[in-house]
Specification:
Elements (H helix, E strand, L loop, with lengths): L8 E12 L2 E13 L4 E5 L6 H8 L8 E10 L2 E2 L5 H7 L4 E4 L3 H4 L6 H12 L4 H14 L5 H4 L9 H13 L5 E5 L7 H18 L2 E5 L3 H7 L2 E6 L2 E7 H6 L4 H8 L50 E4 L2 E3 L13 H8 L3
Helix pairs in contact: 4-5, 4-7, 5-7
Length: 344
């Protein structure tokens, strides 16, 4: 397990608001986490839970307006990324922090060759001349498994399949050998065969480069196989965080349990209906002052509608944002809670 005493990234109290004509949307609410060198942190949750917005907030990738980071600290290499000047942030972003965007079909510029797009960060951040940058770009394409890499530098994105475009995106993100790689659902749009190849590639590159990775995904199966720790997000907040074996073996938050229960079980003796999480995610028009999962939770009780739970340690390295995990809260028994919930 990576050393947690010296994180490469430390995020505290991050809050992001979208200022819209229809009103504010509080997309990220008091999010805190850290990533150690060489660690892979998996971030999971439904669409709209704040995963991508959180990560783009860290390195200034959200359009402003309407997005505004209103609070928090993002410490990386002894600097707060939320307060550094734009030029310093540009040097860090793409150089020391790489980002793999979600959709490989639209993330590459269609009017430039893939070679040009891989060379760009090398020339901007490493100061390489054109000859050296092209040679390194060919090495990167070969590293990510593109056949005949030297020739394909002159091809355009439309000449690559979806899986190959994703490999190109990874090559761009890895060009400057970053200390931290943020991968935003990098395998979602790919078929399972290419997905497996990308996962194997990332594991291999992580071993070779020793970089930390934040991996955003909906796929709990992927996280179970590659992550060291898992952070579960819901309603713009972290609701549970634990080592991967702990989270899958002994989940504590009702939302985490519901997510795991919704995964199909291929080895079951008989077919059954898939479990679903009833209801809809919250509309975050205000900073939450109650549990954001309460309306969908079978274990809620009256206090859940009046108090927003904070992360509470239930075991070493295992934190849960649920009032039932807080020993200072007198929670009724689950059966009594269900009866009480009917009157809430």
């Amino acid at each position: 397990m990576p050393d947690r005493a010296s994180p490469v990234l430390d995020v505290r109290g991050l809050r992001t608001v979208f200022r819209l004509r229809s009103g504010d949307v509080h997309a990220v609410n008091d999010v805190s986490f850290s990533v150690a060198p060489g660690e892979l942190l998996g971030v999971v949750g439904e669409s709209g839970s704040g995963k991508s917005v959180t990560m783009m907030s860290l390195i200034g990738l959200l359009p402003s307006p309407p997005a505004e980071v209103v609070a928090g600290h993002v410490m990386f290499g002894g600097q707060d990324l939320l307060t550094v000047d734009p030029e310093t942030l540009r040097r860090i972003r793409g150089g020391r922090i790489g980002f793999v965007f979600q959709d490989p079909m639209t993330s590459l510029n269609p009017v430039f060759t893939v070679g040009f797009q891989i060379m760009e960060p090398l020339r901007a951040h490493k100061g390489m001349d054109r000859r050296a940058a092209r040679a390194r770009a060919g090495e990167l394409l070969d590293l990510v498994g593109i056949p005949d890499a030297g020739r394909r530098l002159d091809d355009y994105p439309h000449q690559f399949s979806g899986g190959m475009r994703q490999r190109v995106m990874i090559a761009i993100a890895l060009a400057c050998e970053p200390e931290l790689l943020i991968a935003d659902e990098p395998t979602t749009a790919l078929d399972v065969t290419i997905q497996a190849q990308i996962l194997e590639l990332m594991a291999d590159l992580r071993r070779k480069l020793g970089m930390a990775v934040i991996w955003i995904t909906h796929d709990l199966g992927v996280i179970a196989g590659i992550a060291d720790r898992v952070m579960v997000m819901y309603g713009g907040q972290v609701v549970e965080e634990a080592p991967v074996a702990t989270l899958f073996g002994t989940p504590q938050h009702p939302y985490t349990k519901a997510l795991l229960a919704s995964v199909p079980r291929l080895r079951e003796a008989r077919a059954r209906r898939l479990n679903v999480i009833e209801g809809q995610p919250p509309v975050l028009t205000a900073a939450p002052d109650a549990c954001t999962f309460a309306d969908r939770c079978a274990l809620r009780f009256a206090t859940c509608n009046r108090m927003n739970p904070q992360l509470y340690p239930v075991a070493p390295g295992h934190d849960v944002a649920c009032l039932r995990a807080d020993p200072g809260i007198a929670a009724p028994a689950p059966g009594a809670a269900a009866a009480e919930a009917a009157h809430v």
